[in-house]
Amino acid sequence: MVVTMRRSAQADDVARVVSTIEVSGGTARLSRTGSAAVIGVLGEGVGITPEALVSLPGVERVTAVDKSYRLAHRLFRPEGSVVAIGDVPVGGNGLVLMAGPCAVESEAQLLAAAQGVREGGAHILRGGAFKPRTSPYSFQGLGREGLRLLAAARAATGMPVVTEVMEPSEVEAVAEAADCLQVGARNMQNTPLLRAVGQSDRPVLLKRGLAATVDEWLQAAEYILAQGNERVILCERGLRGFDGHTRFLLDVSAVPVARRLTHLPIIVDPSHAAGDRELVPALARAAIAAGADGLIVEVHPTPDTALSDGPQALTPTAFAHLVEEVSAVGAALGRPLHQA
Amino acid sequence: MVVTMRRSAQADDVARVVSTIEVSGGTARLSRTGSAAVIGVLGEGVGITPEALVSLPGVERVTAVDKSYRLAHRLFRPEGSVVAIGDVPVGGNGLVLMAGPCAVESEAQLLAAAQGVREGGAHILRGGAFKPRTSPYSFQGLGREGLRLLAAARAATGMPVVTEVMEPSEVEAVAEAADCLQVGARNMQNTPLLRAVGQSDRPVLLKRGLAATVDEWLQAAEYILAQGNERVILCERGLRGFDGHTRFLLDVSAVPVARRLTHLPIIVDPSHAAGDRELVPALARAAIAAGADGLIVEVHPTPDTALSDGPQALTPTAFAHLVEEVSAVGAALGRPLHQA
Amino acid sequence: MVVTMRRSAQADDVARVVSTIEVSGGTARLSRTGSAAVIGVLGEGVGITPEALVSLPGVERVTAVDKSYRLAHRLFRPEGSVVAIGDVPVGGNGLVLMAGPCAVESEAQLLAAAQGVREGGAHILRGGAFKPRTSPYSFQGLGREGLRLLAAARAATGMPVVTEVMEPSEVEAVAEAADCLQVGARNMQNTPLLRAVGQSDRPVLLKRGLAATVDEWLQAAEYILAQGNERVILCERGLRGFDGHTRFLLDVSAVPVARRLTHLPIIVDPSHAAGDRELVPALARAAIAAGADGLIVEVHPTPDTALSDGPQALTPTAFAHLVEEVSAVGAALGRPLHQA
Amino acid sequence: MVVTMRRSAQADDVARVVSTIEVSGGTARLSRTGSAAVIGVLGEGVGITPEALVSLPGVERVTAVDKSYRLAHRLFRPEGSVVAIGDVPVGGNGLVLMAGPCAVESEAQLLAAAQGVREGGAHILRGGAFKPRTSPYSFQGLGREGLRLLAAARAATGMPVVTEVMEPSEVEAVAEAADCLQVGARNMQNTPLLRAVGQSDRPVLLKRGLAATVDEWLQAAEYILAQGNERVILCERGLRGFDGHTRFLLDVSAVPVARRLTHLPIIVDPSHAAGDRELVPALARAAIAAGADGLIVEVHPTPDTALSDGPQALTPTAFAHLVEEVSAVGAALGRPLHQA
Fold first, then answer.
1. CA separation for the pair D207, D231 (Å, rounded)
2. Closest-CA residue in chain C for B218?
3. Cβ–Cβ contacts within 10 Å for residue A199, how many?
4. D286: chain C residues, CB-CB within 8 Å
5. What are phi and psi of A92, to 5 degrees?
6. Which residues of C touch B249 (CB under 8 A)?
7. Which 3 state secondary structure label does DSSP give A169?
8. How far apart are CA C250 and CA C271, in angstroms?
9. Which among A13, C242, D87, D218 is most buried, taking Cβ atoms within 10 Å?
């Protein structure tokens, strides 16, 4: 259930609703939308009814929502959430660009990439230290050393950093080096990991699993939210398809579908979806036109030597061109690039 | 094989290549790209080799292409084809909008729809007289009477008309009433129908099957082209997916993928993909941003009373708003709406 | 609606129900299950209610069924249908094997294949005269000449013949040469073709489309049944999948799922699903174990020279081995091979 | 590379090959197939060539294999692996049945289930203590208390136990309570977990991800094998499909496909695939007929009160009936149930 208070409600009206819920064995989660308070009720089968709540002073209405996710529900924050990564707001009106190499390979490679994407217009640096590779014999990332290089790149460029975390025991180390924790598509339903990042104070970028429904994705987000971390950003990155011309099948309709269901910001990764750098700009433009709040794009100073996913990486020059295009599309729809 | 002539080649150089191919038992198909002639060679295992052709005067190069489609291959017309429906060019720089009701229901409904979409900015009227319905107990369209109403709407509004044809024996009747023959997704591999429309002098709108690869789609186009009808327009309309929030899964990546492989124009149907009118504008914008040459959109004067697919039909007002948005996106990318 | 009569109902009770339905503008379709009559009611929104029918003498119950298919509904013939191809019953307790080459190539090839599969244990000969090929440049079958060869093979071996028909105008010619008309997966929703075979007096083998739901498949069958042809056999042949090790993804669960929903017999084509002869026996055994009423298997006297789908064709020797295995599985489950 | 030694090779021939590999910087992994030794070579780009190895005494041949998995490759153990869970061999000729409740709910429930499945013919008890649920508000399992109950059920019934482990930090605790560690479909590419179970001395049941290719599944197995744990059992459990009549789409062809590629035993979970207890027996029979080495089946003493996945759980009586059927199918194909 979600309890929406009247705008005229007083602080003690809100407090009364919260205490009524908690006395009954439920958990109340308070948010504010514009000038009105909204209270989400957690807890299965608690001894509290909509009728009891709606009769309390200051309550405007009580809405039943799908029981499988609640805090992620659009109703809980109808105007949409803005989640800051470092000082960059994701969500809201401006568009945000995250870019960088698939994997951190060396200090020189990372700095060249960081410099390149910043000049091209990126707000946030991405780069993998821990890499979830299909084969155990592929490059698995530099691990902790990669984290150190990311922290150094952040210091050198001033850009906030997003990087993947793959197991609960590494959350703390990753959170130290990075401004945002990425949970990869392969781990979308790794519930111990979701709980662990839910207990972190870093925002979380949650990629959609490659055969996950939008509802399953929102329930995965709910695992994080239910731990108290309200800062979740969703990322669509392509589904398993059957046509070999692309690596995955980008589901752009997930953007307006998820927008309708949840208040969380939604970005798109055109690089993994395409698996082919020639196709990345078209998918990037489509994502922004469909209403995404931003992009995460793979850029490598020398894609042909990349240790991971080179074929889908853009050069910094190609990235700068992509930024021009998505900037034009965003501007045409009233959504300019975020200005630092 | 595709033979590309030098720009300096003379008419008799071209004629010599054509006759060399035909003497060997093959079929030569001539096209022009800019100032250079291109000759496609049809016929399996004919007694002619690339070496023999490349040594002829005026030949610049001979390129082997995927044997399963040739006339559809981008190499055959590298600058891209423009296919006119009535006097509206599809392909090229301008964007084209086709719109109208899913099914023709009555004269009043069709005229209201036609008027509405024309005012909203559509160039071409769509409407189904023969409807391929999943259940035999659903409304199957008005048939020949529907064709008559479409011809009347064309006369009344001056808009060219596109409508579906479902069997070879109806091609002639449909071609009389309509300016463009649509082959639906369910019939993408109905080869007798493909051959029949290939023998018509009307352009053909070929929808992609709901689980067809891009290569299968181009091979279906090749059936039409191989009959001598060069005027094929491709239409992506969504794949079978697993998420119930949309009716089909729009594959926007098919636009740049097909663009790279073929010279044929490519449009997108966001309405059948979405199955939900709230989602149609986002998909329409994404399609244009991905590089589509136009859209085909379902619009009904009173969607709630529609006999077919009402939930995905836009009102004329909503359509006009969609046109504003896609026009802005197109303009931002240097592709304005076609101006009559 | 389906009206089930009491076993004690008299002929004039049944006649009264039928006339009541027809007077109200509906169509009554009578079948018998064991000793009780069952009457299906067709016609949307006719002026007749379940209440009116259930009050008539001799009526045991009136059941509302999914409106999109009715005659195909299990309720309409709870004990299951048996459809004879020539003198071979499909459905019922015995298992039926159809086998032969993908395409009819020559008299010698067809006779060798027919001889081979008959010796191996097949009951029915399959072979394509009209071939729906993905590329227009692939072998398209011998057409009418292929039909002539099939009729000759039938005469020579005494085996009934099943072959594909691809357009309404060929139904008559195919029905003359063959004992059963096959509608291919690519034509599952080619409604003019479904109607045309529905007006034939030949049984119809209806393959499931490669991305069709079971409900869509049953609605396609309903198109045929609604024309008055009650002799439809369903055939599962694999869905579009994403794993390149097989050509399609065999959905064995379709067998028990369809069994529950419909009274029509269900067979399986393991050859097109596998696309690889090494995998065919395992899929054939699985299909029978899942409850299929039979198989349709591609067998070629010399698979390596086949003009179509050679990689999935078995030799006659391999087919005989497959028959031994499926015979053992069938016997273990109380379903022996049909004995002529 | 895989080095196959001659049968006549001596121990010091084998030792020489191993040391040659290791001196060059590679890792040698020795196995025996019948009377011949087989040596797998790990290590990318090591300074050793097939030519150098094939010239060593006692070497019969050196085979290049797909670089993404090697230890899992069929060539490495051509006769197939047998992996014991407790004293029950999985793989080899006999069929093995694992059964029990989806989730451990209480001592009484677990003991009733264990008793029931043992009487029905199961060899191994399954039951979840840690449950990966889609929604955070669904029952998540009893955790450590569930492990305690499983250990007690093992002691009471003598049946070996298989249960899921969801994070590296729980591997040790689960390995104490259970005879086999299950890695669930959602965690198939959770590489830290794969590495952790690879360092355990317990066999591992590795479920296929719901959109994983067979190659990706084998590469996931390779993560475990590469850590030194050779005891991996593969489990197919259904793919994401589009037809709502089943929960997932069972890919029976994965059984013969994987059999050809790998020596690891393969079992099937018909319960999660079906999601509907009426369909479970047909899928179970199909799996055995396709060549699976066994089944893992959900059985609950009172399915209607189950806290998780009740609709797909069989009663003990229905399970006993399923065992009779699969036993008959197995026997018909020369694969009897394992006899303790």
1. 14
2. C135
3. 13
4. 252, 286-287, 289-290
5. 80, -160
6. none
7. helix
8. 10
9. D218
Please name which of D227, D182, D268, D315 lies closest in space to residue D42, comparing C-alpha atoms: D227
Q: Quick one: closest CA in D to B244, which residue?
A: D242
Give pLDDT < 70 ranges for chain B.
Answer: 33-34, 43-46, 66
Kindly list the residues of chain D whose beta carbon comes within 8 Å of any beta carbon in chain A.
42, 44, 67-70, 132-138, 140, 166-169, 186-187, 189-193, 210-211, 216, 219-220, 222-223, 226, 239-240
> CA quadruple C112, C114, C115, C119: dihedral positive or negative?
positive
DSSP class of residue A306? -
Partners of residue A260 in chain B, C-beta under 8 Å: 278
Residue D115 has φ and ψ, to the nearest 5°, of: -60, -45
**pLDDT per position as a tens digit, C36-94:** 888 888 765 567 888 889 899 999 988 877 677 789 999 889 899 999 999 999 999 99
Q: CA-CA distance, A304 to B313, in Å (whole number)?
A: 47
On whether the CB atoms of residues B136 and B337 are closer than 8 A, the answer is no
User: Taking CB atoms and an 8 Å limit, are A219 and D134 in contact across chains?
Assistant: yes
The C-alpha of C251 sits at a distance from chain D's nearest C-alpha, in angstroms, of 7
What number is the average pLDDT over the span C144-163?
96
Residue of C nearest to B67 (CA): C137
Residue D265: pLDDT band (50, 70, 90) is very high
A61 to each of A5, B150, C75, how far by Cα in Å? 7, 50, 46
Cα separation of C188 and C194, whole Å?
A: 8
Contact yes or no for C138 and B167 at CB 8 A: no
Which residues of chain B have a CB within 8 Å of the CB of A250? 251-253
Q: Let me know: does D205 contact D183? Beta carbons within 8 Å.
A: yes
pLDDT of residue A87: 96
Instruction: Report which of B174, B158, B144 is spatially closest to residue B111, judged by C-alpha positions.
Output: B158
Q: Using the CB atoms, write b or e for C178-213: b if 16+ within 10 Å.
A: bbbbbbbbbbbbbbbbbbbbbebebbbbbbbbbbbb
Lookup: tokens for A125: 């640096």
In this structure, are residues C170 and C189 in contact, taking their beta carbons and an 8 Å threshold?
Answer: no
Chain C residues within 8 A of B134 when measuring between CB atoms: 68, 189, 216, 219
**ipTM summary value:** 0.91
**A36-42 β-sheet, strand order:** A27-33, A36-42, A2-5, A59-63
- Is residue D165 within 8 A of residue D181, CB to CB? The reply is yes
Give the mean pLDDT of D75-87: 94
Residue C32 clears pLDDT 90, i.e. is over it: no
Q: How many helices and strands (H and E) does chain D possess?
A: 11, 14
B27-33/B59-63 β-pairing = unpaired
